[in-house]
Amino acid sequence: LAAHRVLMMACRVLCVWIGAVYILLLGSLSSAQELDGPAIETDDDGNLRFMSGGDLVFEADSVAFVSASSGEALSLSGVQGEKGEQGNPGSPGSPGAPGSAGPVGPPGSTGETGQSGSPGRRGPPGPQGQQGPKGEDSSSAMGGIISWNQCTWNDANIQKDYGVLLECWLNKQRNDTWLRVTWNGNMRITSCSTCCMRWFFSIDGRECSDPGPIDSVMYQRSNNHIIRQNMFTGVCHRSGTQEIDAGAKRVQFMLMECEGFNGYIYDALTGWNSISKILVEEIPPRDPTFPEVAVTPPDTYVYQPNYCQYFYPSLGFNRERNVGTVAEVEFTKLHDHTVLWITWEGNFRKKSCTNCCAKWWVTINGGECTGYENILTSISSNSAADVFSPTTVTGVCHEASSLPIAAGRHVIKLEVGNCDLYRITNTASGFYSSSRFIVEEVPRPRDQELSQESYHPQWSHCAF
């Protein structure tokens, strides 16, 4: 009995299991018709029926249908399950191969013009060319001056303490020339002690930068009211960062505070009860390759300028000396028959003494000028006032220590010392201003026995 019960239980389990399998595969087996496989459906009584011939084979881990016609084992697909959860992202793939280059694009628009580069270095002088034909005398008749203009004011009496004082224009003819500007008038500062003001030139709104500013400084330690005559001059090749090209040039005479005085502006006066003048000249650049000529100039000789301006930004207190050399330059004279025109431009001072006198003078190769007299000036006072006076010392010389100044290299100095019969004086030169040593080689005064119109400009020299 017990064995019978066990056998019946096993049959029931087997039948249940077979029925479950048939029920689960009911939906998917019907689609097997498209694969030429078995098809199972239910009849009206709910019984399972095979729609094609074959055997159902049960194995340990699968169920297969074997076709009766071909003997081919066809897999039975189960019922489609529910959609599973989204899997984790896969790891990035390796980079693909670079693509081929695309077609060349159209040209871009033109960019903006860049800033000008700095001027290049000056090249060495080229070889001397052959002498050309005689040219016109239009420039030589004015001593090499190409164009010029002088502006004058009668009793300008300008009581401004800062900015533009006067203005003068010149129509510059060429790009490769320089400008020489000159002031001649009076000025003063007052109502202050230990004070300083600076008069200077600008060209087209910019101060001269090559070789340097053209200016004059007035300083006083104690309060004085002295109107002083002053003249200063200088040449200019470049203003600001620009060369002075051809065209209308605006030359302005200006006033400002001195450097080192904390920006203080003092009571100033310019051009009182006198004629004030600004002279603007266009001059050719110096030509060091000009050929030598004989002592007696030939008919073909045409004057061309030979000059140099030696510029000192600020001699300052390093030139506060009482005796000795203030400045020293070397100049190459091209001809034997010419003379030297020498100018010192700056300011001088004597202080801390009464009834004293100091002098400044020019020497050439160690000797004072003896042709046309010495080039000299002096300052003397009866009080101990400490006043810097703008000063110009100029003169012409063809002999030094009674020896002719021949062609060649010469040493020219500005010396300082006490006047004859006076004791040593406390002096200084070039205080808070630019100073200039200008040396020009010019023809001698016209010899009445010479008739060559192209020899040199008309001028004469008188010394007293």
Poorly predicted ranges: 29-37, 137-143, 288-298, 446-461
| Average pLDDT reading | 76
Instruction: Identify the overall geometry.
Output: elongated
Q: Biggest β-sheet, characterized?
A: 12 strands, antiparallel
Helix content: under 10%
First-residue to last-residue Cα separation: 171 Å
Portion of residues in beta strands equals: 35-45%
Number of helical stretches of at least 4 residues = 2
Structural class: mainly beta
Total count of strands: 29
Which radius of gyration do the C-alpha atoms yield?
A: 54 Å
Notes on the structure:
About 9% of the residues have low confidence. 6% of the residues lie in helices and 42% in strands. The protein has 2 helices and 29 strands. The strands form 6 sheets. Strands 7, 9, 10, 11, 13, 14, 15, 18, 20, 24, 28 and 29 form a 12-stranded antiparallel β-sheet that branches. Strands 6, 8, 12, 16 and 17 form a 5-stranded antiparallel β-sheet that branches. Strands 19, 21, 22, 23 and 27 form a 5-stranded antiparallel β-sheet that branches. It is mainly β.
